[in-house]
């Protein structure tokens, strides 16, 4: 039985509004419709974050910036976001849910031309992701699905905490060495690329 429409409007989760519930699943048990729709929508959000990080990695590979360690950092984080998206899709499938293929939004980082704005954009994306995971866990618990609440918290929310801390540290150090929002590609960005160990040891 589907959830009342007014309940769905009370959440800021990226719910899949065109979701098609697979009623014939034999493995589905205690998976509320609103949780299934949220898992579907959040999976797409994770793919969009992965796409944005990949695009940032490509930007720092360009010859006018040439920051190879920064580029490698964003590529690695893109791969990890994609793995998280696939893990959520796998969990959705295990619970008998269905994923609705949707268009992935363009990265929205075409104007990025420096390290500081790239880090700011990534930090904002991860903080949004954290808020979404907290909300998803809360909704699952309120809907009587403690298993989904626990999986979201342990598998998807907890790993975000040190990543947000890392981004905060990188932003602080970038400002200390003189990186600016204008992204002039100065000596500060070169220092970050060469000396910031976290750019290559965040595994």
Account of the 3D structure:
The structure is a single chain. The protein has 203 residues and is mostly helical. It is 61% helix and 0% strand. The chain is elongated. The protein has helices spanning 5-8, 33-59, 68-94, 115-142, 146-157, 160-176, 187-195. Helix 2 packs antiparallel against helix 3, helix 2 runs antiparallel to helix 4 and helix 4 packs antiparallel against helix 6. It contains seven helices and no strands.
Q: Which descriptors apply to this entry?
A:
0% strand; 203 residues; mainly alpha; disordered N terminus; elongated
**Shape from CA axes?**
elongated
Radius of gyration: 19 Å
Number of separate strands? 0
The assigned structural class equals mainly alpha
Low-confidence stretches: 1-9
Beta-strand percent range: under 5%
Largest sheet: none
Percentage of helical residues? 55-70%
Mean pLDDT: 81
The tally of helices reads 7
- Write down the secondary-structure element order: HHHHHHH
Classify the oligomer: single chain
Q: Report, as a whole number of angstroms, the end-to-end distance.
A: 43 Å
Summarize the structure.
61% of the residues lie in helices and 0% in strands. It contains 7 helices and no strands.
């Amino acid at each position: 039985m589907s959830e009342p429409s007014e309940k769905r409007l009370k959440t800021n989760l990226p719910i899949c509004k065109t979701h098609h519930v697979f009623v014939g699943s034999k493995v589905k048990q205690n998976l509320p419709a609103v949780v299934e729709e949220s898992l579907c929508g959040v999976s797409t959000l994770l793919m969009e974050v992965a796409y944005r990080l990949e695009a940032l990695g490509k930007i720092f590979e360009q010859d006018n910036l040439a920051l190879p360690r920064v580029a490698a950092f964003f590529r690695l984080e893109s791969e990890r976001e994609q793995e998280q998206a696939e893990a959520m899709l796998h969990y959705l499938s295990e619970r008998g849910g269905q994923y609705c293929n949707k268009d992935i939004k363009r990265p929205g980082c075409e104007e990025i031309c420096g390290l500081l704005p790239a880090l700011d954009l990534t930090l904002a994306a991860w903080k949004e992701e954290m808020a979404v995971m907290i909300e998803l866990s809360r909704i699952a618990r309120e809907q009587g699905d403690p298993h989904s609440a626990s999986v979201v918290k342990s598998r998807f929310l907890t790993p975000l905490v040190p990543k947000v801390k890392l981004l905060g540290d990188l932003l602080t150090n970038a400002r200390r060495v003189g990186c600016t929002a204008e992204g002039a590609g100065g000596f500060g960005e070169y220092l970050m690329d060469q000396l910031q160990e976290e750019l290559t040891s965040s595994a």
